[in-house]
Amino acid sequence: MHRRRRTALAVLAATLVAAPLLSACGNQSHPGAAAVVGGERIEVSTVQDRAADVRSAQENSPEAAQLVNKSGQLNRAKLHGLIFGRILDRAAADAGVTVTRKEIQEMRKASGAQQGGEERFEAMMLQQRWVAPDQIDADMRQEVQLPKLAEALGADLGTPAGQQVVGEALTKASKALDIDVNPRFGTWDDQKMQLGTYSAPWITQVTEFTPKDSPAGA
């Protein structure tokens, strides 16, 4: 029986319990910005452009209608990914972790092989993660980066204790970046790594992690 690989990001995110947030007033001193992270702006236009790339890829898919219907929070998903990427970059930098282009390409090649080829891999990323083909390398970078961060921290992502260590490092980085989100997109939760009540559709949120839940689905 085929068992889907659980990625490093999914393993960690599965321990972050999704919970509704109280509405909050956001700082509106940055017009045109979807968010300000570490003093750097993420423009609304950047979020919209990334969402448009995904929409274009979806519309060219044989399953266009289904893909579009399932990705109603696409703009928030793209902003969530941009914010989390900067948090992971900060946590990795704090731990002295770097990622090479070669490592990214090796991860993409291995992931593609597991899906039965690049075309099927791209289709899976579009369907399950709302990632357009030209956005895949950024996703693979995080898949390389997170386990390397865990290793640098002496943490095992396959255990609750290890996930807690990495989660604490990410929370520390998130707080240090002083994230300010445009109210139209919600508010950022440093503890849950979550944008408002948005939950990434490819992540199964759970309230418990047990040892039998292995990180690779093995």
From TrEMBL:
Domain of life: Bacteria
Signal peptide segment: 1-24
Name the UniProt record assigns to this protein: Lipoprotein
Record-linked Pfam families: SurA_N_3
Keyword Lipoprotein found: yes
Keywords, comma-separated and alphabetical: Lipoprotein, Signal
